[in-house]
């Protein structure tokens, strides 16, 4: 007598996803990943940021540009020509917006003018460090933001008056205080533009052998919800470059080169010195925190005729901004 033992066996097998379905899943995933990067690229290139939140996060464009390589890889794996084309165009658009800031050249012709700018965080910056930085870098002009009356006294006690004896100060107990310190005589400039935001003193500085140069201490409001209109108005209020004088604006712009309003301002005859020197991706805020500095909002902006020899960024204890130093060369008069 024979027994059929196969009747009690479990019937099993593998579920196989058809190749066409797998391709559709990979393609859908690639589209899902590339779409936000593409939208960001369109907003950045076309200057479409609107509102406080989008304006603030636009400063993250360098990181988004680096991340835009991921959709290119996923699109290639998905074997979709359409997704790959969009991913490549997106990466190229973001890369071309960011990478030039890391490529610069040293240009040394002309009369030297050295500019240092620092937001002092309600006068909390370490005055000894600030003075030591001035002594080491030997700036002709120091542009300060959030300069309090107490900080003025502390800087003088630390020896700043001997290093930079000329000054045009507008200190304030809060965030609005600002001030220009200089190695050479300063003369206040009135009516050059209508400041929108914190105190923004402007002056001419007279260097040996060249025509007077105009210096503006910049500090608009941050583009928060309650100040976004004033922030935009401040950048629009800055005067354009003019052919008969050299103008330099230095300070905490609360703006990066990824903001359309900042780029519109620069298009009126100016250049960012760090961008020209290949240091445009060096972040300046927030400093002295658990996280490292992430974004670049402190700038020395120069007339396009001014050459940039060197730009460096320095951390100062007691403030959440890093100091920006620009070694400039003025054109021959």
From TrEMBL:
It holds the Pfam family Exo_endo_phos. The keyword Cell division does not apply. It comes from the Bacteria. Residues 116-321 form the Endonuclease/exonuclease/phosphatase domain. Keywords: Endonuclease, Exonuclease, Hydrolase, Membrane, Nuclease, Transmembrane, Transmembrane helix. One of its GO terms (molecular function) is endonuclease activity. This is Uncharacterized conserved protein YafD, endonuclease/exonuclease/phosphatase (EEP) superfamily. It comes from Streptosporangium canum. The lineage of its organism: Bacteria, Bacillati, Actinomycetota, Actinomycetes, Streptosporangiales.
